[in-house]
Design brief:
It is a single chain. The longest helix is centred in the middle third of the chain and has 24 residues. Helix 11 links the parallel strand 13 and strand 14. It is globular, with a radius of gyration of 21 Å. It is 43% helix and 16% strand. The relative contact order is 0.11. It is an alpha/beta fold and 389 residues long. The chain has 2 domains: 198 residues, Rossmann fold, CATH 3.40.50.2000; 172 residues, Glycogen Phosphorylase B (Rossmann fold, 3-Layer(aba) Sandwich), CATH 3.40.50.2000.
């Protein structure tokens, strides 16, 4: 049994990194002593773990809130009392393990190259962005260099980007793929919502629906997806956007491209599986994120995926069998979507294959891999040796 401290701002079954930690602590709790340091816990077994709620400040600013957490968690956690102190990314000063869900350095490059030129940013916004990203990168660099050999990335892309950004060796970063709850996300639970949600949004049953889901719309490639919709030959295609974002900007973009009536903004939902059930394909075109939970959930519900070729997670998409891998090019995205929209039998076959591939991913497998990495590192330390975990 190991004494483990895990620090993250919030834990719940809704968000991305929040969900990963939630699923992890539930699986480690029966075998280890877990202390969870956070602002707001939800959906965790408080009868099996000890939850230390840190006093929350700066709710009006996500950046100040996150920055305050770094110092609050670092002060609260007596690292010498634990075998393992694991923090998400760079959000602590005294952790000895990092669980990395993305590479902030790569996110910044993507923003500068592709997204900020398209976004509306005032002088004040540019200044605050510069300050915030300066802090994020300093914290990330410090964490990665401090925890060499004890860094766990959630996919191969994240590992590769961290190694490139911070000069890490391949053996210093491990991979534990994200999981998915197949009891909640599956074709049987999703399919019954097709008719109801299509009717709610005024979408014909024979329309080909492409789904986009999430926040950070500019960063996650929604501009490219709207451009691709405008270039599709299949005019019965519709794009449904689920999540919170700048509806005015993207509504105007769609209108300027002549597809304003074919883009539907559905707002935020706490039941993503229902929207997976009403769609025919799922597109995720971010150049700053690899194995997002929403990709796994869409595949588990039986949706073909359209992902960027150089950013797609390993073993999730078989190109041409369960979806398509495309370059960051609107014409190529449009061609991939057209091929599915024009051939319902192909789309159905891809849906079945996509669900099959999703079965390779589970929360149990991720927790087992993270636990193995933890314990191997402790064994190496106890033996006074060096090497990879």
């Amino acid at each position: 049994m190991a004494r483990i401290a895990i620090a993250i701002e919030d834990v719940n079954r809704r968000g991305g990194q929040e969900r990963v930690v939630c699923e992890l602590v539930k699986r480690l709790a029966p075998r280890h002593e877990i202390d969870l340091y956070c602002f707001t816990p939800a959906d965790v077994p408080e009868d099996q773990i000890r939850v230390i709620r840190l006093r929350e400040r700066f709710k009006f600013s996500s950046f100040l809130r996150a920055t305050y957490f770094i110092f609050a968690a670092s002060h609260a956690v007596a690292s010498e009392s634990y075998d393992i102190v694991c923090a998400q990314g760079g959000n602590m000063l005294n952790q000895n393990f990092v669980l990395a869900h993305t590479c902030q350095a790569q996110r910044l490059r993507s923003l500068r190259e592709l997204h900020w030129p398209q976004a509306r940013r005032s002088a004040l916004k540019r200044l605050t962005d510069a300050i915030q990203w300066g802090v994020k990168l300093r914290c990330e660099r410090r964490a990665m260099l401090r925890c060499r050999g004890r860094i766990i990335a959630i996919d191969d892309l994240c590992k590769r980007e961290l190694c490139e950004a911070y000069g890490l060796q391949d053996s210093e970063v491990f991979v534990a793929y994200n999981g998915v709850d197949h009891e909640r996300f599956n074709p049987e639970s999703a399919r019954p919502w097709r008719e109801e949600l299509r009717g709610q949004h005024g979408i014909a049953d024979d329309a080909f629906v492409v789904l986009f889901m999430g926040g950070l719309w500019v960063e996650k490639g929604l501009v490219l997806l709207v451009e691709a919709l405008a270039r599709m030959e299949q005019s019965h295609a519709r794009l449904v956007v689920v999540g919170r974002g700048d509806e005015e900007y993207f509504g105007n973009l769609a209108a300027d491209l002549g597809v304003g009536d074919r883009v539907i903004f559905a707002g935020f939902t706490e039941h993503p599986e229902r929207y997976f059930g009403m769609a025919d394909a799922f597109a995720f075109l971010s150049r700053a994120e690899g194995l997002a939970l929403v990709q796994l959930e869409a595949a588990a519900c039986g949706l073909p995926l359209v992902l960027l070729r150089d950013y797609a997670p390993a073993d999730l998409v078989a190109d041409g069998e369960s979806g398509y891998l495309v370059h960051y090019d609107a014409d190529e995205v449009a061609k991939a979507l057209d091929s599915m929209a024009a051939d319902p039998h192909l789309c159905a076959a891809m849906a079945r294959r996509s669900h099959e591939l999703s079965l390779n991913f589970s929360w149990d497998k991720q927790a087992e891999e993270i636990e193995r990495i933890f314990l191997n590192a402790l064994q190496i330390e106890a033996e006074g040796g060096e090497g990879s975990a």
